[in-house]
Design a protein that fits this description.
single chain; alpha+beta; Calcium-transporting ATPase, cytoplasmic transduction domain A; Calcium-transporting ATPase, transmembrane domain; Rossmann fold; 4 domains; 8-stranded mixed sheet; 31 helices
Length: 903
Amino acid sequence: MSKVDRQTPGHFSRPVEEVLKYLDVKADRGLSEAEVQRRRERDGPNRLREAKRRGAGRILLDQFKSMVIIVLVIAGTVAFSFRHWAEGIAIAAVLLVNAGIGFFTEWKAVRSMEALREMGGDTIRVRRDGIETEVQAEELVPGDVVVLESGDLAPADVRLIESNNLRVNEAALTGESIPVLKQVEAADADAPLAERNSMLYKGTTVNEGSGQGVVTATGMDTELGRISELAESAEKDTTPLQKRLDHLGRRLAWMTLAFAAAIAGLGLLAGQETEKMIETAIALGVAAIPEGLPIVATIALARGMYLMVRKNVLINKLPAVETLGATRVIFTDKTGTLTENQMTLRRISSPAGDYEVDEEKKKVQGKNGSDRPLLHRILEVGVLCNNAALVDTDNDREPDEEQGDPTETALLRAGFILDMNREDRLEQKPEVREVPFDSDAMMMATFHRIEAGGFEVDVKGAPNRVLDACTRMASEGLDGDRPIEEVNRREWRDRAEAMAGEGLRLLAVADKIVENAEEAPYENLRFLGLMGLFDPPREEVRQAIEQCRDAGIRVVMVTGDQPATAGAIATQTEIAKDGGKPLIMHGNELKDPDEMSSEDRRQVRETAIFARVSPEQKLHLIKLMQEEGETVAMTGDGVNDAPALKKADIGVAMGRRGTDAARQAADMVLRDDAFSSIVAAVHQGRIIFDNIRKSVMFMLCTNVAEVIAVAVASAAGGFTGFPLPLLPLQILYLNVVTDVFPALALGMGKGAPDVMKRKPRLRDEPVLTRAHWSAIGGWSVVIAACVLGALIVAFYRLGFDQRQAVTASFLTLAFGKLWFVFNLRSPASRLLDDDITRNPFIAASIALCTALLIAAVYLPGLSTVLKTQDPGLRGWLLVLGMSLIPFVLGQGLRLAQALREPR
């Protein structure tokens, strides 16, 4: 049997005898030790392949891949080469801080393969040479016969050969919220993973019952192994912010080279000293690059990460918050994300009327009241015909621990509403026999001894099957029965279908009295009614989804659950808010995007709910949306979500219910599992991008103004003797002082109030659009003109000497930068009440920069190095007047924009 043979699909759809023959093993004896050894040598150990770890050196190197960082490295090297120590040290500090923050956050990189390997289990009972023994799970081979009991972790993919009420929790693998009853009978050949009830899959947990099975696949050949391969191979594209900053960096690199060459050439042609022009060109080339950009972006994202921690969101990677802010589609799981993963009894429908069950208020309400005998009898059957338990660990008569199937624990909790404790009821009606739930009968029964003599049979199960087994129907007071006719059965089936359409999971209950506890349980029953159970949506989900809708974000449910249940939850949470039935697509209808027609793609884009979806199909969905230009977020909590969490632009894992594999594959983790926390992250992400954009605008407007002013003066100086308005060291000082601190302050703003009313950015939208570049060009010319104007007035009009006149132009540019910050407020905001004036860091940065500029003029030693001189009262008035011109023009422009805005 080759490796390819072992991967042949279909064991779940083959009869047991055929599977055993295929694997060359007898169920009663198992494999021989010699055969086990041979197969282990051929197939290897039963464990998942280890993922390649990124070492510390690789992580550190990755911090320097950004184009802006590379340009800064080159600029710093050149600065040190020409002994521009201040500039070199400033650049080195920026690089070290940026790399340090990035390194320590990336150190927590994805470790999903390690988490997946931890699911392998420890020991398992296996039958070899006719003897049962315990072995390490990794020692299993295909063909081993294993014995399974409640609490066991499935050690491999196993085809069942015996099942005794075997229920398995597959939520982490398939998304199913309720333990699945397993059976020996083969499933359909085209059954999806969640419906292959004849199989146990590696990593799932046996909740109750027992069974035996034959191992069909081990290690990487299991379904869990296939998922781990998907997670390992899922390519994670560079985040949108990283792409934009790299694009901007490349653009600025070419601009820098062009500016430096042009300025040097113009100066030399104009007769300037060669050494001076080379130094000036180098300084301006460095000034044209916003050195503060990497650290501004890093610190803005780090602050966003800190704010998210306060909102129960853990960020694994710094760009994650910004990326979610750009998200246009959120694929969300249902169980545990939109719902509470907590079954509750919601409704009881009986021949006496319907009753609404409010577990929170501990009330049962109906038009006939809550004290009717039939109502009590229905609940009593639900409590007695039950395998679960509610444990009172602190003896306060209130259960605080649940054991067993969520559906059955929900019935026990409902019983408490009417003071119906299972232990008390069993004392009155001792259980003498249980008929476990059978997949063929789809019913369960318990026999109880009663005081009047004989035995009471309590039955619960699928409505259709229970109705077929009933010959009578209970009356309101339980004092008389009436025959159940076919018309009655149709009416109750219609009622059951209507309740199922509301997302309720239905159970029918019935009873009878017999003389012998060995009688058949499912004959001549008395129909009592229906019980509708519900896994409620989380309280805050609807509001969160509405906020996403306002923000232009589509929320799409992707679940392994049944279409009807998914549709009901989607309706209640308003994921599909169109007034009609939500559009649902079954996973079997999903194809690889490469095989989809344009009509297929359109239908997928318009679908709000995808049910019975496999891990591969989740990847198909993400791939399609990304190809359509959407920025995609994916939420999940199970092992099956790990590949999609990794492939999505941003993966969002659940912290409480999530598996380690999901949490470590994700970019961010919700500690409270609250969907509303995603909305908070979207809000913060949008603010961060806006702040980074403002910072870049600020740095480029003022840096380009430096270049223009020096370029014009350099060209004119050779003919007129006109001095340069800024000396190289003055440029370096301004670049470090008056760029970085205000830019950092802009990066820490709280954002505009309407940030969540805007549509998401396009996936390929750059940090600076054409309109932003136009604004940069316009403002740079205005600021440069003011600098040159101040120099001309000081030099020619006021009669300042060259050093004093250059000091005036130097200070004009410096303070012009500080006032220009206020021009970056939102157009619709008010002058004295906007996102800039409300930012306390802005005021602090302006105060700090003002002190540093005064020190540049009056502090001995520093003024000598910078070649500055006290401009005097006239000079300070000139500086104040010329530096305020861009501010006044900017506020006038904002006022005009506000007046044009529709009210």
